[in-house]
Amino acid sequence: MSDTNATPVRTDAVVIGGGPAGLFAALTLVRAGRRVALLEAGGDMRESLCSRLVARMDGRSVRDAEKFRLQCPRCTCLTGLGGAAFHFDTNLGYISSLTRSKIESAPDGTVRSYSGLERALGSFDRAQELISEAYRILYELGLPPAEPDEADHEDSFGSMFQHVDTALSQSVTVDDSLVVIARLKAELEENGGRVLLYHRAEDVEPLTGGGFEVRAATPDGPAVFHADDVVVGVGKLGLPWVRELIGRIGVRHRPSSRVDLGVRLETRREDLDHLLNGCHNPKLSFLNEEGHSVRTFCVCGGGRVMQYGFLDAVALDGQHCLNQPTSKSNMGVLTTVDLPEGTDGTEHAAAFAARVAAYGKGLPVVSTVDELAGRPVPEGPLTTSLINYHHGDLRECLPASLVRDVLAMVDRLNALHPGMVPGTSTVAAPVVERLFPDLDLSDDLESSIPGLYFVGDSSSKIIGITYGAATGMAAARSVLRRRAGLATTAGGGH
To answer: Which residues form the FAD-dependent oxidoreductase 2 FAD-binding domain (predicted)?
Structure first.
């Protein structure tokens, strides 16, 4: 611990991270009368948005702000209240019922489907209830209710994929997110919660006799908090801090044995329209030769590919552009890799990203589908939405198995609709997910240190806005039960 002399602030709970998981944890606690300090490393949502978005929302031409951010080598709008996902038009997931959207090879050789949230929370019914509650609260806070697309779903998917999930989902724009996050923040503060912006957590230390000391760096100097419980809800960029923390204070964990590695596949918007008929975010999966799941992920109709700095490399994601759609669409193609015993999944994924970045001289690498397949490449510029990239041969920096998986996905999509993914479509790498160490958590997301919870991305169990919100609520409910039980015990109850 640092030797600051800051006077500790006493509170019931500290929530670290102002993304969906942290916000919903804090809201659940505050609504139950608990005192909460929410620490967010970034600023308020609006002030941390890309200036191009702010210009549009203020009625100015987006062009007025292009000179500031359009040519950013990498996106820096990934911190701030609301979390990275809410800083862009995005997709929230299921609006009617939770589904088991992923597949894996079962020990008996069959293919089984599962939900990551179901596994994180111990039961499908519980996961379903928490997702429903998350939507109820989002609507209560001003999210416009979804209007499901009544178009017919593509009925031929099953002929080419071992699992198809076309459950209805809800899109949300930044404009709507601003309303939701502002109302959530206001409710926290009106009911005794403290939303502390530009407070970057540096240490969490269990105290003798129970409770925790949390230290944070702020613009005004160090801040110290004493709390009964701590909920950690940092996003992907908080990975290095979480790894250091759990190793230092002895949170029980093991190296991740399963990671998601992949690419963003991008083509013309009209080419991909067949895939999006009746479903914003179809999830199509098959098992490869090794029995690993290969699936579509985060389909962005009319969107663009974005990059951000990750560890010592770079990573890609899909950006939805609902207010100002582009002429392109993109999707992730991910392979879930089961790693050999003794392999650290976090290190494996970091090495994967670093290898691509090294080949790209610090930039993501883009090839055409034809190049990836070893076919002749037409002359002319690539049609990618990425602005800063290295045009190279992805076969030289991606594992051969991943190249094979991407091409197999392209073949399946083209078998459904010839020309859906032309050879001139682009493939960009790297994409990395499921990177956190495998924490030993209860079904309430409580770690081996009582009172210390890990939710959202940092739980190592799930990613996504509504999934994150569900884990935040699960952890907060656990805190409330534990504290009620301790109060009863202290009062002599049975």
So the answer is: 12-46
> Per-residue DSSP letters for 169-238?
EEEE-HHHHHHHHHHHHHHHHHTT-EEEET-EEEEEEEPTTS-EEEEEEETTEEEEEEESEEEE---GGG
CA distance 420 to 331: 13
- CA geometry: angle at 456 spanning 401 and 40, to 5°? 125
Strands 9-10 and 221-227: parallel
CA distances from 403 to 162, 261, 363, 390, 396 (A): 20, 11, 19, 18, 10
pLDDT in tens, 18-60: 999 999 999 999 999 999 999 999 988 777 766 666 666 666 5
Each residue's pLDDT tens digit, 431-460: 998 888 999 999 999 999 999 999 999 999
- Strand 304-310 to strand 452-454: parallel, antiparallel, or no bridges (unpaired)? unpaired
The domain spans of the chain are 9-45+80-87+175-254+438-490, 257-433
Instruction: Return the SS3 of 142.
Output: coil
Q: Residue 484 is which amino acid?
A: A
Task: Please state the rounded mean pLDDT for residues 370-387.
Answer: 87
What fold characterizes domain 9-45+80-87+175-254+438-490? FAD/NAD(P)-binding domain (3.50.50)
| Residue 399, CA distances (Å) to 341, 363, 404 in order | 19, 18, 9
Name 110's Cβ contacts closer than 8 Å, sequence gap at least 6: none
Burial of 493 (0-12, 13-18, 19+ CB in 10 A): exposed
Beta bridge partners of 458: none
- Find where tokens 């102002």 sit: 18
User: Of the candidates 187, 216, 269, which has an alpha carbon nearest to the alpha carbon of residue 23?
Assistant: 187
